Amino acid sequence: MAYEKELQVAQLAVARAAILTKAVFHEKAKGTVSKDDKSPVTIGDFGAQALIIAAIKHNFPSDEVVGEEEASSLREQKDLSSTIWNLVKDVKLDDPESDALLGGPIRSEAEMLDIIDMGNSAGGNKGRIWALDPIDGTKGFLRGGQYAVCLALIVDGDVKVGVLGCPNLPIDDREPLTEDMGAAASDAEGKGVLFSAVLGQGATSQPLTRRGASTDSTGVRPIHVSKISDVSEAVMCESVEPGHSSKGDNALIAEKLGITRKPVQMDSQAKYGSVARGAGDLYLRLPVRKDYIEKIWDHAAGDLIVREAGGQVTDVAGNRLNFGLGRTLTENKGVIAAPANVHAQVLKAVQEVLNSK
Ligand SMILES: Nc1ncnc2c1ncn2[C@@H]1O[C@H](COP(=O)(O)OS(=O)(=O)O)[C@@H](OP(=O)(O)O)[C@H]1O
Ligand SMILES: [Mg+2]
To answer: Domain boundary at 205, 222, 239, which?
Structure first.
């Protein structure tokens, strides 16, 4: 099957990076990482980016990476850099065979910094380019709520493989979303899901942990968007941060569509995963600031996973997201993800609300 190895590498790399992010969160909880509230994000972001790029470059040396982070600031903060290195050097998957597939450990702190800087591709519509968000939903991560480790392979401008590791979402696809989904999630059993898709091959979910190249594939389930026919019954997912997506517009659109349920707020591409598995029905992200341009790493994996699960993803003009224009989605404003059968109806309501402003 096409992109089999890419999918396997992406899944294992995301799973390994998610282990690091969880370790950082637990260190933070113990107070050993830093008293500075922001540093757990920095540590997790840089560490996860290093681990994932190392795995990509080991398996596909000539591929490029568009990564959210670059290491120049880190090179000047020796203490932070060595804290990250101390975590990164010890992170392993349960299964040695899978670790070996990812290329074994990074050899030194200096090499780690160089690897982080390999995420500097300009993007574009030629060749093989991975889009990486090591910790998407940084605010959710800090809170112990929803965040995602996101990786997608874009070939000649088209997303071919997408993987989302969501450590704080329930494993069970049928578990309904709750209003406090975005608040601190317990780290209890039953949490941590990996969403994956390959273009033309459908979308799946599986537990994020206890998996490896040598284990069988039990736990891998095909996922589908909800079978909603009456859009007034929809559960809408939206950002937590009011600055990232317009809550006021969402409320007006919901009213127009007759939706009475309160929206579920959660950070990160966990929203795309939730729509893809039918736990939520719609994801609306309407621009707050006209000048904000969305980043490809915030959408590439989620876009493919929702589409392969039977959904449609467009901007507010009804156009597909264009991942072939560089590091940002320069031609798109806003995002509407919905089951294919109701997408046009939702888009119409979105446009009516935006045009009436
Ligand atoms: N002004 C504005 N408008 C839209 N989007 C923005 C804006 N500013 C930032 N970002 C990006 O939003 C990413 C997080 O989006 P979420 O939907 O997860 O956010 S949240 O629930 O609103 O926090 C977030 O990703 P992370 O930085 O990885 O968390 C940013 O890339
Ligand atoms: Mg992000």
So the answer is: 222
